[in-house]
Design a protein that fits this description.
- By secondary structure, the chain is mainly alpha-helical.
- The protein is built from 4 helices and no strands.
- The protein has one domain: Transferase(Phosphotransferase) domain 1 (Transferase(Phosphotransferase), domain 1), CATH 1.10.510.
- Helix content is 56%, strand content 0%.
- It is globular and about 35 Å long.
- The model has no long low-confidence stretch (mean pLDDT 81).
């Protein structure tokens, strides 16, 4: 199960990067990067539309109970 989550996160970051040319979390250094990840602060460029916007927002939710599950990600349209 851990590997499924790890792979889905990797695919999320890869999809985000391929689509936007950016990463969902930025930081001047590794410490700032981890701070931003911990706060769950990210932005999705305005040119990204649904359904991709909804998928990215759902996968990047800070609170686990609000985050999309693997079955939800697979079924996302």
């Amino acid at each position: 199960m851990f590997w499924n989550v790890l792979i889905s996160r990797y695919v999320l970051f890869l999809r985000y990067n391929i689509t936007t040319g950016l990463y969902p979390f930025e930081g001047e250094n590794v410490y700032k990067l981890f701070e931003n990840i911990g706060r769950g602060e990210f932005s999705i460029p305005s040119e990204i539309e649904n359904p991709l916007r909804g998928l990215l927002e759902g996968m990047l939710q800070k609170e686990p109970e609000k985050r999309l599950s693997l079955p939800q990600i697979r079924q996302h349209a």
